[in-house]
Specification:
The protein has 373 residues and is of the alpha/beta class. The chain has two domains: 11-97 and 104-255, Type I PLP-dependent aspartate aminotransferase-like (Major domain) (Aspartate Aminotransferase, domain 2), CATH 3.40.640; 257-370, Aspartate Aminotransferase, domain 1 (Alpha-Beta Complex). 35% of the residues lie in helices and 14% in strands. The protein has twelve helices and 13 strands. The protein has helices spanning 11-23, 30-43, 54-64, 82-89, 108-114, 134-144, 194-203, 243-253, 256-273, 304-313, 339-345, 359-370; strands at residues 47-51, 72-75, 93-96, 119-125, 148-151, 159-160, 163-164, 170-174, 187-191, 279-282, 290-291, 298-301, 348-350. A seven-stranded mixed β-sheet has the order 1-9-8-5-4-2-3, sandwiched between helices. A three-stranded antiparallel β-sheet has the order 7-6-11, with no helix packed on it. The longest helix is centred in the last third of the chain and has 18 residues, at 256-273. It is globular, with a radius of gyration of 21 Å. 49% of the residues are buried.
Amino acid sequence: MIQLFRPKIREAAIESVAEVLRSGWIGLGPKTEQFERAFAEYVGAAYVVGVNSATAGLHLAMILAGVGPGDEVITTPLTFVSTNHVILYQGGVPVFADVDPKTCNIDPASVRRMLSPRTKAILAVHFGGYPCELDELRAIAKEAQVPLIEDAAHACGAQYKGKPIGSEGLAVFSFHAVKNLPMGDGGAIATRHLWEDQRLRRLRWLGIDKDTYHRTQDDCGNPRAYAWQYDVPEVGYKYHMNDIAAAIGLVQLSALASDNTLRRLIAAFYDSAIDHPQVIRKCRLSDDNHISAQHLYWLQVERRDELVTKLKAAGIAPGVHYVPNHVYPMYRECRGEFQHTEEVAQRLISLPLHMELSTEDTDKIVEVINGGW
């Protein structure tokens, strides 16, 4: 079976994990700090806080935005459910803006129409790794005096107008096993402000003002006897990253740029080679203002389910990203605009895209799609 996703873990990452396991410090510790610094440098962020998942990171972003019961967050229905579940965690109300059918990203014009006096934040997903129209979204957020939060789970290594996603504003990344930077699991929040960094570090560790590792170090980072004293100024969560995942991430990060280049080359091959009358639209590729991380390569096709069946019969595992969230019970009463979302969702199919694909694999995928169905 040609898999939809398959993580590539370098031998050096395995060795790095063994080093951490032998060190005696495998929780939140020095490797996590090292990874946070390296990732911040990679994405051009002032601060990065490592967490155990992008879902956890998005939840903390909702708290940072002050989302509470009855507050509205304008979001997209075309995403993985964790994007919108975190709004419900806080008692907030998702309000769904429509998507641009050319990119599957949230449509700024629809976001503007969804604004209300109860709007507390705007949550934008960089669908498939292709950056949203951030200039327009930032302008809307500034006018409405609400924060723009970027769900960058697909966008690790993406750029908008020459700047890395994560370099401006609040952006949340995923390091799940199938993402561009696979670490088994994990996530990170990139931010520009020291106060946000400090609060996020408390929130990810149960609201405690100093984590266990830093209570074994003096102010210069030298080992000292364990200091048991700490304060808990607010309720927090056990959302921290650990050094095992961070050790994997440090190695994987060094290959992220080359991995993303290969992803874009595979996508460009699909784009040039796929030719079938039922293909309505192809994935938007990188351009001068948008460098896609190319987490997904999608097509919009007529009779999508027939193509899914044909690919599976040929030993190829496609995907569908995503069932629009507004069809699920907890979101059915949410207001929004769905015209383009519903049209796109009936046609979307994702093709295999990962580091282990061979030329023979991609040739076979294209041959099956270009045949009759």
